[in-house]
Amino acid sequence: MVAQVARPATRPAPEETTRTRRRRPLGPALGHFASFAAPGVLIYACFVLAPILVSLGYSLTNYNPFNPPTRYVGLDNYQLLLRDDQFLTALRVTSILTVIVVIVPNVLGLAVALLLDRHGWLYNALRSVFFTPVILSSVVVSVIWSRLLDSEGPLNEALRALGVDQPPGWLSDPAVALYSVASIISWQMLGFCVVVYLAGLQGVPVELQEAAAIDGAGPVRRFRAVTWPMLAPALTVNTVVLLISAFKAYDYIKVITNGGPGSGTTATIAFNVLQTGFDANHGGYASAMAILMLLIVAVVTAIALRFLQRREVDL
Amino acid sequence: MRNKPRAFRVAAALAAVVALSACTVGDNSSTVDGKQEVTFLTFETPNLTPGYWDAAIKRVTAKNPDITVKKLVAPTADGRTAYAKQLLQSGQFPDVMIAVSPAGFAEAGNLYAWQPDELKDFLYPTANPINGKYYQLPANTQTIPPIYYNKKMFADAGVTATPKTWAELLDASAKLKAKGMTPFVIGGGKDGFASSMILSGLVSVDLYAKTPDWLTKRRSNQAKFADPDFEKALGKFADLAAKGYLDKSAVSRDYAATEQAFLDGKGAMYPMGNWFAANADTKKPGFEIGVFNVPTEDGTVVAPAYTGGGMIVSAKAKNLDAAKKFALAFQLDKEQLDASVKADGLFPAIKGYTLPSDVGPVFKAGYELYQQAQAQEAVVHAFRWETADDGLLPGMADKVDAAAQDLITGRRTPAQAAAFLDTEWSKAG
Amino acid sequence: MKHGKPSWLRPGVAITLAAVFFVPLYFVLANVFKPGDLIAKQPAKLPLPPTLANIEAVLTRPDRLFWVSLTNSIVVTLLSVLVLIVLSAMLGHYLARTRNRWTRALTLLLLCGLMIPPQVILIPITDVLRFTHLMATLQGLVLFNVGYYVPFGIFVFMGFIRAVPVELEEAARIDGASRMQVFWRVVFPLLRPATASVVIFLSVWIWNDFINPLIILGPSQGTTITTGIYRSIGQYQADFGSLFALMFLATLPVLIFYLALQRQFVKGLTGGATKG
Fold first, then answer.
1. Where exactly are the structural domains of chain A?
2. Are C184 and B72 within 8 A, CB to CB?
């Protein structure tokens, strides 16, 4: 019985303040830090924090490994970026992509999770079907879908067989391609949301549901009053993971559209960072883009977390 | 229980594993058994398979037993120059690279400059100078693009002669379209060059024929993409799209699928680099393929081509002499040249080289076209494909492809596309 | 049960939805076992009779691309996940149990790492790795993975550790066990579901990682499974049989891994999910 799984985290966390307020001698505290925390913190500092600082440094220069000397240019790169059409387009593309990728798998994932929230081998098997794309590499997913969505690929052939004369250019029409890419990412992430919501649904106490039913609440009211609030933590996890995946989208773009059709119709900021840094050699400019991107991700995620966790607390 | 905590044991075991793998992968010695090791960056395509490269390397090392070659493979064929840049930036620059553009690398002092006596066997030893020096072996010539055509479709549409003037090309396209055929096969997707082929041809035959050093002028800001001459080429290209002679929905189709579409008879004309001839001859579609030069306004012959495509050698190669020796031996080996003709349709630019007798008909037709143009001194550079300091700035080739796609899909007018290219150029500078 | 709807409705809708969802995967599966020339002509048809020619072609490539990539991927994934579990469980424990101003700040700094896109640090990471002579080595890639994914590890572990009663640990300490012993003998075994979900997610992410192995590992150490697929797209762009076979073989290990750990994993997610 999966539903009876011990769920330690739902119990109120023990109050620890009395323990931590106690003043401890410095020596053992340092020893504790050195043995438990230092290795992880050190590697994180070397391989994540230090590179960010280096990036920040580069972003204030005209760094181009093929065009020395490197000099300090202050905030020039940032000022240029805000007037750069291609960057603003990338910002728009990334926003649209993010909005779709955060909403679609969340909504559909919840629907599928509600559908699959039953026991038995059938539902277990179907859950695995929905989860399989999550474990595929994004390159694999991109290759599969670019074949399927080719203007003469299986999907359009099927549409033609159904009598559609001019099936859409899923990846070739500048007005459609971005939505196709967003759908592909949503397809891959759907299973993640399903599994997280299913896990959340198993945490909804059956007694609560039954009590609501006895009070005469219909299925819709029961969902809104009992189930949905209990799913708040699952919503938080899904939203944050989707937000981050959408912002990071690079592989999909590289393999499926290479930023096109045309100039930047599907080029995300992440894609532009690598193009500018490695194809056009403009390390300084690319770093400025990367830092701006980091700021945007941080602010958006922080706002989302704040908002979502407030819902959790309101329970 | 005073034994050591498990964490220590785990950590110790991990440290041992990491150290062990350090021994196995950290071995970067450059001489093995007295042999000089050379790292060689290749790329793979359906024609240039791993087997092709292995055989080519083996031919050279068999004759030069003191050299061992470590083959490296770029993750994508047309990303190979970008990949070489990443390798340089991350301290892994290969000793020898093939068909990687030397621009950028050379100016920053990363490449070995070939001496005149090392270039004595090449037909065009002074091709592609960068600051007056020669970094890339001028090993072969490619015509980019001639226009391949489906003879059966031309006949069916009543097009009797291959178009010589632009008006004749438009006329032929109109006839093909009237019969329900797609005049041009184009592509795009991750292989953007398949979108810009005709545009590249138009700029070469119209603009370069008049102003051969146009890009040099663009580099010194004496010319702009928004100049009437360049914009006219953009306009002619946009016109083809507006008239429905190009299939808009093909801008997401990758190179392999594009070639297949032409071989499957899905369009009548296929503007593509002459490397296509190799596949045209081996895949033998159910129709004959002909080839003609990109038509000019008045019908004079102009053939866009570029000589280069050979190897570059890192100036900091650990075994520089071995690397140079390997590169020259590779490029001058008769058997290797024959193999490159057959697999990749290259025109070797080596003194005294004669083609193998069994080359295919499409290759032969394209080669003759080039020879004629050469006899009339009507060869110009192929716009977008230059690799020296008279070429596009780094990163700009992608923008040209993007601009071509914008014109095909009607997202931008020629004037807007020109403005876009000028903006991007100023950022690339 | 208690609803008045027909009992076949739910399984019916569920199966239909899953079938539609499965179409792209079917497309690959069917074509892996189909002769190459039929893939372009009849992409949707069942592979009857099935052929193993595509799989064989990939497994017996003369350059052993698949086997080299597989070895690299296994070594990198295994080492990274092992180190990550040890380090992030201990760090998570430290942060959950030592609550003061400094650790709160440290926690925040670490959790920020969750949202850093790899592109932001990719260019300078090569500088750091060169400085430490770890560029183009498997250890370099492993260390980078550890640094990059430690935030996720502690994100999951902290939630769980807070739910483990402190009294358990204190009792063990009074019995004379060291802090290290208490953690590994008493606390860590209680974290199995969290460990399972960290193991699954990190394995999948590291296994599938594309851009980092491409740049950090470089060309001389060979490819990982994902960069290998990407590279072979060049050669196989017209040979979908081999390409799909390679993709299928590349996914098989993670798929088996997931199915084996599935039960544990769902439990792990539950704990992690509710804590946020």
1. 86-278
2. no
As beta bridge partners, residue B140 has: B308, B348
The answer to whether the CB of B311 falls within 8 A of the CB of B96 is yes
**How far is residue C251's CA from residue A201's CA, in Å, rounded to a whole number?**
29
Name residue, tokens 């067989």.
Answer: A161
Is the CB of A178 inside 8 Å of chain C's CB atoms? no
Which residues lie below 8 Å from residue B296, measured CB to CB, with a gap of 6+?
B164, B165, B166, B205, B206, B209, B302
CA distance B264 to A292: 47
* B147-306+369-428 shares the fold of B31-142+307-363: yes
B420 touches chain A (CB under 8 A): yes
Touching A (3+ Cβ pairs <8 A), the chains are B, C
- What pTM value is reported for the model? 0.86
pLDDT over threshold 60, residue C273? no
Taking alpha carbons only, the member of B257, B371, B156, B118 closest to residue C237 is: B257
Domain B147-306+369-428 has CATH 3.40.190.10: yes
CB-nearest to C137 from B26, B83, B259 is B26
What is the architecture of the domain spanning B31-142+307-363? 3-Layer(aba) Sandwich (3.40)
DSSP secondary structure code for residue A3 in this structure: G
Rounded Cα distance between A99 and B100, Å, is 40
Query: In C, which residues are within 8 Å of A251 by CB distance?
Result: 210-211
DSSP A188-203: HHHHHHHHHHHHHHHT
- Residue range B75-98, pLDDT digits in tens: 877 778 888 888 887 788 999 999
**How far apart, in Å, do the first and last CA atoms of chain B sit?**
69
Please judge whether B18 and C139 are an interchain contact, meaning their C-beta atoms are less than 8 angstroms apart.
yes
CA angle A138, A143, A144 (to 5 degrees): 100
- Which H helix or E strand runs over C40? helix C36-41
Residues in chain B within 8 Å Cβ distance of A86? 424, 427
Span B320-328, mean pLDDT? Answer: 95
Domains by residue range for chain C, with CATH? 9-51 (no CATH), 57-275 (1.10.3720.10)
B9 vs B206, higher pLDDT: B206
Whether the CB of C183 is below 8 Å from some CB of chain B: the reply is yes
Rounded to whole angstroms, the Cα distance separating C80 from C185 reads 23
Q: Which residues pair with B308 in a beta bridge?
A: B140
C62 touching B (Cβ < 8 Å)? yes
Do residues B355 and B278 touch, judged by C-beta distance below 8 A? no
3-class secondary-structure state, position C98: coil
pLDDT at residue B33 in the model:
65
Q: Are B237 and B407 in contact (CB under 8 A)?
A: yes
Alpha helices in B348-413 (DSSP H): 361-375, 396-409
Measured between CB atoms, which of C124, C150, C162 is closest to A43? C150
Pair of tokens at residue C69: 């990539």
How high does pLDDT run on average in chain A?
84
Q: Which CATH class is domain A86-278?
A: mainly alpha
How far apart are alpha carbons B96 and B51 in whole angstroms?
19
What does the domain layout of chain B look like in residue ranges? 31-142+307-363, 147-306+369-428
pLDDT tens sequence across B172-231: 999 999 999 999 999 988 888 999 999 999 999 999 999 999 999 999 999 999 999 999
Q: How far does the CA of residue B36 sit from the closest CA of chain A (Å)?
A: 29
Token pair, residue B148, equals 């391949």
Per CB-CB distance under 8 Å, the chain C contacts of B10 are 82, 86
A83 has a chain C CB within 8 A of its CB: no
